[in-house]
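Quick one:
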Amino acid sequence: MPSEGIFKDKGSKFYAFAWPVISEEEIKKIITSLKKEHHSARHHCYAWKLGVDDTRFRTNDDGEPSSTAGRPILGQLQSFNVTNTLVVVVRYFGGTLLGTSGLINAYKTAAAEALKNANIITKNIEQQLIINFGYNILNEVMDIIKQKTLNVIKTSFGENCSIILSVRNSEVQKITETFNKIYSIKIEPV
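Output:
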């Protein structure tokens, strides 16, 4: 179920819906369904963002003046720092023109309301690293892993040892430097 928000101004009603999404195909199905459900609405404006690198996004003003609907909705996705999310704002025209600033405010506020009402799930972006080292320093390596509360994915102990760790992207450089500085151990992405 999507989270919802509403904004009213001069007779116009702006109903906002926010969905978690993982693909453009899913987004198209949701928009098509929403247009059928709200067939008498004048506009179905939206913005979506997929992935973590801020390169996969789209906005649509659906007949509103350029950049008065889709961009303000996208701005809220960025403001809430969410991804894999679609926000659609359905406008029922109330008979009075709102002007450019009025439209921007209406779409922005409706989108913000839907996102405020959403159950946003935070996930850490992690990278897997492999550490190769001699058995003679196993205890020291395990102490660092414990101190830094690193997530061990797989281990292989013998004359030569290897450990695969899952590390937050923001911590990769620091962890790599720690092992290189203390033990001259080479760490590589898996």
